[in-house]
Every structure is written in structure tokens, then in C-alpha cells.
Amino acid sequence: MHEENTAATNGCGKIRSSTQNEAALLALMEKTGYSMVQENGQRKFGGPPPGWEGPPPPRGCEVFVGKIPRDMYEDELVPIFERAGKIYEFRLMMEFSGENRGYAFVMYTAKEEAQLAIRILNNYEIRPGKFIGVCVSLDNCRLFIGAIPKEKTKQEILNEMKKVTEGVVDVIVYPSAIDKTKNRGFAFVEYESHRAAAIARRRLIPGTFQLWGHTIQVDWADPEKEVDEETMQRVKVLYVRNLMLSTTEDTIKAEFNKFKPGVVERVKKLRDYAFVHFFNREDAVAAMSVMNGRCIDGANIEVTLAKPINKESTWKQHFNDQISPCSESLLGFPSKEDGHQKSAWKPAVRLNGQHSPSPPEVERCMYPFLPGTKLTPISMYSLKSSHLSSAVMHLDYFCYKNNWVPPEYYLYSTTSQDGKILLVYKVLVPSIAHGSHSYFMPDKLCTTLEDAKELAAQLTLLHLGNCTLYSA
């Protein structure tokens, strides 16, 4: 690397040459005793640290760091992240030019240290006016496989995936809400490692690979949500899956009260799954053991403890992560081998005077349509959530991913005191219309059709988020 074509600024805004950068990194290595190696577009500091014995830290010890200034390096970053605990490995993603790529992964020696880093360093002002984002990072070992023939059984899908990919541990298949003898047209394939899943994903690229004569959809699945043990020890809500559409909340409550009358506080059912709230945790745990695998109205149910979801992040999860009621929805994660979680930090916007969370930032660029460019017909539903820029599209996408009937919009109007036509949409989600909310309508009127529909879709997504404050 030559001094004349590489320069960076330090925290005081002064230009640093490549020689000064190298000197600062060497000083850091000498001070800490850590090694540093650059390979495959990333620079690894430690991993393991000096004197480390035994296996690497378990899952949950790594955090993702985003929005790092491009001219900031380990000599400035490592001391900041050491405030939360001992670093096992610091991986800074690098450009060929010598700048960093704006994000890094920090693995600590204990989960508690990673959680502390998120608490004290998320939205930390790392330079004047520059705020970094820090969130949990998970190696993803699970793929979403879509467009599977609905008559295929779990065993048939498992056998086929083992034939075409290596390292398959299990497949997760959900029965159709309407016909329990069929699957929902998709499955989740669990692999023994992130590397095995990444290799399988590349092999199964849509358009180049078929299963049972069908072109399949393949992408990263949402990693299982990590909830700390202390929080889970307080949970007194059960998640019940694989219910019949016709099963009522009263029936579920009666069945769960059988083993001990009066222990169920309330039941919230959405389509073919439900959340059963208990007065006491001890009764919830006992009921889970007794009721798991039981038959209700002809369906064998699955019962687990529900995982609390942060209310403040619910909208962001729906808009950016496509969270399904079972937290099993399709996700894309950029990373080492495109499978690491990367979150976004976005400001809120105002829609017609109402303060509303913004949709994901979509890269709005145009590229020349060159002669000979090959075009492939695709469905909107094969895209990732990041390609969608409106709540209307997200709501439609959300319903599709959950195997729900598309939402229905009904337009109403009135006249304002100054003679303007004001509009509002009522949204019906047929798949949950039998629940406590049959439709959703904003309490604000709009002057344009587009704003009215967007506002109604936002309200509906927010409500669906509040209905799923617990996940599988």
C-alpha cells in the first residue's frame, strides 16, 4: 500500500498517511499482543486472543457494528469496544482501496459482554455527528426453500435436500392451515454450520436448479431470535401452532384449563396459531409439557414457550425483516458469505401530519438497459423485503409469506369544512377476520388516494405487530 494514494483521518480530523496507519496498527498489536491478518476482504484482529485455551465463544457472543466511518480503523475502534469486555475477535470489512467497508463484527468472550456492548454502544457518537449502530450478530445455518410441491412430506423433502446438498441436519415443514395433509409450499432446511448453508445456497440458486421438476426459491431464513435466559424465566405465555382454522379461542382455553381449571388468563388466536396467557409461569410450564402433541379438533398441536418481542422494534421488524408470526420468514443477510445479520438505522418520517416509521431505504438508482441484456420473468414475492418501498406492498408481501389471503381495501370519503374531499381506507385481512379485529381503519383522513392507502396499510402492519409481541 503506497503512502501517496491512501490517507485517513484520525479522531481530530487530521489526515493520516498509510505509513501512520500501519504504525498505529502495529502499536495496537504490540500493546495488546493480538495478531492481525487480512484475508477475503476482511481484517481479523485476534481470534483467538493471546493465551486463549479451549473452543471459540458460543453463539450470541458476537455483535454487528454498522455505520463506521470509512477512514476509521482498529487502533480507534478496538479501545471503544473493549469498554464492554474482552474481545475474542474483531473483524473489520475492508475495501481493496484500503478503506473499511463501513461495518465490522466483534466477538466477545461471553454473551453478557456482547449484550453490554449493544446497550452502551448502539447509537454511540463515534465522531462528531457520526453515530454507529450495534446489534446482535448470528451465524445463520438455516435456508428458506420456497415453491415446494404442497403434496411433499417432511421425509420426502429431507431426503431430497440430503441428496442435493451436504450437511443437512433437519427440515422444518408447516402443514397447510386449510389441509393438514399438505405443506404450505415452503420449508426451512437446517444445516450443520453456516458454511454448509452458504455452500448449499449457492448451489440452489433459483433459475439454475430444480427440485421435483419445479424451479424453487432459495434464500436465508430468519435466524432464531435470541432471548436472554433471565427474560425467558419470566415468560408465562405459550405459543400453540398447527391449530385448525375452525378451532375457537374458547375451545383452546377450555382444553388448556383441563389439566388445572382456572389457570388460563386469556387466549389470542390468529389463523392457525395462538398465544395462551397464564396467570402463573409454573402453570404455563406444566401445561406446555402436558399439552404438547395433544389433539384438538383433529389437529396435533405443538406447544412451546413464546419469546417476547421488543415493542419498540416491532414495526422495524415487520418493515425490514419480514417477521412472520412464527419468526420463520424469509430474510436476506449480508456478511461473511452473505449470511450474517445486518440491521439498518433509519429516521422516522411524517405522512400527512402523522409521525410514522419509515420504510426501508431503497437504493433508487437507474442503470442503462444495454442491448442483449437478458431479462427473466419473476414474481414480486421472490424479491427481498428491501426491494419494497411502501407499506401497501409490505402488507401484501407479509400476507403472502404467511400463506394468507391478500388484504382487501375499501375506500370512503367525506367533505372537510373548507370543501375538500377527504379520503380514508378500511383494510380487511380475511385470514384473521374471525379474530377480535375484523378490519383496520386509521383515525386520520387524507387528501390524496395514495396517502390514504399507505396510512391504512401502516396501521394494519402496526396492529399485526402488536398481535405478535410473542413469537415461536
Automatic annotation (TrEMBL):
Annotated RRM domain residues: 61-139, 141-223, 236-308
Gene Ontology CC terms: cytoplasm; nucleus
Alphabetical UniProt keywords: Cytoplasm, Differentiation, Meiosis, Oogenesis, Repeat, RNA-binding, Spermatogenesis
Subcellular location(s) per record: Cytoplasm
One Pfam assignment: DND1_DSRM
Family matches, as InterPro entries: HnRNP_R/Q_splicing_fac, Nucleotide-bd_a/b_plait_sf, RBD_domain_sf, RBM46_DSR, RBM46_RRM1, RBM46_RRM2, RBM46_RRM3, RRM_dom
GO MF terms held by the record: RNA binding
UniProt superkingdom: Eukaryota
Predominant location: cytoplasm
One of the GO biological process terms: female meiotic nuclear division
UniProt cross-references to PANTHER family, sorted A to Z: HETEROGENEOUS NUCLEAR RIBONUCLEOPROTEIN
The name this protein goes by in its record: Probable RNA-binding protein 46
Organism: Anser brachyrhynchus (Pink-footed goose)
